[in-house]
Amino acid sequence: MNDPAPTSAGKPAPGAGTTDSAGLPAWRQQTEGEQRWAAMAAVLTAVALQLFLPARLTVRPHWLLPALELLLVAALFAFHPHRRLDRRSRLLRTLSISLTAAISLANGWSAVTLVRELLHSTGAPNALALLGTGGAVWATNVIAFALWYWEWDRGGPAARAAGEHAYPDFLFPQMQTDGIAPPDWEPGFLDYLYVAFTNATAFSPTDTMPLSAWAKLLMILQSAVSLLTVLLVVARAVNILQ
After folding, report:
1. Rounded to whole angstroms, how far apart are CA atoms 175 and 187?
2. What are 91-115's pLDDT values in tens digits?
3. Any idea where the domains of the chain sit in the sequence?
């Protein structure tokens, strides 16, 4: 990878982000692996939200996918009991991606079923129950996409800690300007959760820009699912109230 273009003072050009003595940007520096607790808390929240949904909106039997997700969580802890995500392993990567895919599959099924009910004016006759169900699907959608962003940006948390990838998939503000974050700053799960939440509410990027094609496509898909869910749920709730 080419080093950032130097200025006349021999320093990296503005916008090059935090650099080390060798001129490497922050995303190429080796850092301490992030702790796993925020991601695990989000996964358990998604499982709880899936169990909260009416059985008619879930894959039958109702407990199947939540049980599978909890089993994958247990497997991840068994194979990597350490609190920091700094071990690169094909098995751990497969388990982690499978967990994210299971959450996405469960919520995708629920979202499609909910949209079908709304289009046919069936399902919950109570506006409050409908808003609660729609809110659970929307929140799980935010968590699922936050996990995808976290898992795929520069190869996942372990690869980010190792500084393996030459180019980032998401450009955070801390990566663009010197002096606003520690030199060893790395985005953690909460940063990706924020990206997913703002994309689901604003239907567009806010302060963090997607750079790679897959990141842009994922953000388009998340915005589309969020917009469709919000519009149909609110419209149906208003119709019930009237």
Report:
1. 9
2. 999 999 999 999 999 999 999 998 8
3. 32-172+180-241
